[in-house]
Amino acid sequence: MHSLSLLLGAAAAVNAMLGGKIDAVVLPGNQFICANDCVHKRVFFGTRATCLENETVLLLGENGQFSVPGSPLDFLCREDPLLSVPGQRQRERRAGEAPEQCGLHPLTDPNEIYCESNRNPNGKLKIVQWADVEKLLEEAAAGEGSSTPQQPPGQKSREQCAREGQQAFAKCDEGFAECDRLGRAAIESCLAGQ
C-alpha cells in the first residue's frame, strides 16, 4: 500500500473524490474526529466539503476583509460552492495560516457519535471510516497518472465532472458506500459525455 504522504500528492482529483458534507470520520484505535473545518493527516474536513489541506483557501466578505475581524479564519476547499455566491471572495493562504488540527474523540459506541457541527437536517450523521478516505486517496492518486492533457471539443473538463460527482455525493442521504457509488457514477457519466 502506498504511504499516505505519496497519496496526498494526487491533488485535484482527490478534492472531487472525497466529496462533501462528511460529519465524522472513524479512526483506527477507537477514536473519531468531527468534520468541523479542521485537518487530520493533511486532509481538510470542512463543514461543506472535504479536500486536501493544500487545496484550502480563505473566505473573505464583499469588502475583501474577513467577515468578523479577530475571529478564527474561515477556511474552505477551493471548489466549495459557497465561493460562487455573489459577494463571496477568496484568497490564498499565507505563511503561518493553516486550519486547526481536528480534535480526537474516544469512540466507545459507534452508534453514539455526536458532533456539534451536525449540519444534516434529518438528524443522520454522514460518518465515514478513515480506511475509506485512504482508499479514495489511493484511487485518486492512481487516476492522476492516467489523465489526458487534451479533451475533445464539447466534453466537460475533469474538474467540471469532479464537481458534478461532489455535488451528487453531497446531496445523498444514504450511507457512505451508496453516496460514494452515486458520486462516482455522476463523474463517470459526465466524463462519458452523457
Automatic annotation (TrEMBL):
Signal peptide location: 1-16
Record keyword Signal present: yes
Protein name: Uncharacterized protein
Keywords for the protein's UniProt record, in alphabetical order: Signal
Disordered: annotated span: 141-163
